[in-house]
Amino acid sequence: MFDFQQYLGFLAFLTILTIGFWLMIFLISFIPYWIGGALLENYKMKREAKRKAREQA
Fold first, then answer.
1. pTM, whole model, 2 decimals?
2. DSSP H helical segments within the chain, as ranges?
3. CB within 8 Å of 2: residues ≥ 6 apart
4. What is the full per-residue pLDDT of the chain (57 aa) written as tens digits?
């Protein structure tokens, strides 16, 4: 069976594994949000540029 140091090592391993898993989930969910925001901002800037071009013409 495990002695105390092996038990602490196993708990440290599980903690690091769990932190890595949730960090991966966070990053996977954050990247589409980032890309979508960038696309929306780009769309708004192009729409504003077209509006200003129509007003000047």
1. 0.56
2. 4-56
3. 10
4. 779 999 999 999 999 999 999 999 998 998 889 999 999 999 999 999 999 999 886
Dist CA 53 CA 56 (whole Å): 5
Place of tokens 């960090």: 23
The sign one gets for the Cα dihedral 22, 25, 31, 36 is negative
Rounded to the nearest angstrom, the gap between the alpha carbon of residue 42 and the centroid of all alpha carbons in its chain is: 19
- Residue 26 · residue 18 · CB < 8 Å: no
Q: Alpha carbon of 52 to those of 33, 45, 46, 47: distances in Å?
A: 29, 11, 10, 9
